[in-house]
Amino acid sequence: MSTLLDRLPARWRAARVLQGGDARWDTAEAVERDGALLLAAPSDHGPSLLVLGDPVAAGRLLTSVVDGRAAHDGPLSRAGFVDRARWLSMVRGTVPTLATLAVLGLEPFSTWDWLAADRSPAPHPGEGAVTRLDPHRDAAAIRACLADANPGTSADPTAHGEAGWWGVPGPDGLRGVVGASLRGGGDVPVSWHLHGLGVRPEARGAGTGSALTTAVLRAGLREGAQFVSLGMYADNDRARRIYTRLGFRTEAELASYGPAGADRPAP
Fold first, then answer.
1. Of 156, 190, 221, 223, which sits 20 to 30 A from 260 (CA to CA)?
2. 112 and 247 Cβ atoms separated by less than 8 Å
3. CB within 8 A of 119, min separation 6: which ones?
4. What is the mean pLDDT of the chain?
5. How does pLDDT run across 98-119, given as a tens digit for each residue?
């Protein structure tokens, strides 16, 4: 997101949720108004939208941009809007109107939090079982584990920009896996974003997820990431306790809206 940050006022350049954004936002249209920021990134399936800042101002800004969608010089038009958006994530505390969602072709999907950590965690007793995987050679094993452990993820070990994948081997395949993508652009990525964390049902409750997260957080900071981030569903209290113990802090509270029938977040 380095290209985008160069175009934003200083207050937004300091937001780690933007510093740790992926490359889709580099060409996004940006509108700032009354303490809120709206980004509209073009894609083949309509713009992806991100709205941050003061919740009340964010709601007004989204409504204004959607109401002005027909203007040829408006941000939605410049981002390629035709008849629907691809995805919308916005700060919680305001809810888009039904009319706005109808225009965008979206409906409520999830509430989630964006967390980040910038300090190496204390050693975890299960870290010794975590091994770094080869995203290509081990792709089939990673996908098999994800299909059982985290079927709703859109993470892919062979996707562009992966920092790496880690797993805990077991007698019948991987017991759990996690990946991380490079974020922030430039010659040296600003951060790593943890994704695809999954532990097979029979292996849960033994600290495997904590060990995987600890190992990736430590690896990211050791390899030069300024921070490591992740997203989690807002009602996952058990995961929140684990992440908090490892040093992650909530930096953005968001709600997402996707197309009807969506069963996973847009990649």
1. 156
2. no
3. 221, 247
4. 93
5. 999 999 999 999 999 999 999 9
pLDDT higher than 90, residue 247? yes
Same domain, 146 and 96: no
Write the single-letter amino acid at 77.
Answer: S
What percentage of the chain's residues is helix, strand, coil (to nearest 5)?
Answer: 30, 30, 40
Residues in the chain: 267
Q: Is residue 262 part of a domain?
A: no
DSSP conformational letter for 218: H
This prediction's pTM: 0.92
Domain boundary among 88, 113, 138: 113
HSE (side-chain half, CA atoms, 13 Å) at 231:
20
Q: Determine the structural domain holding residue 71 and report its residue range.
A: 2-113
Q: Provide the pLDDT for residue 9.
A: 87
Same domain, residue pair 126 and 78:
no
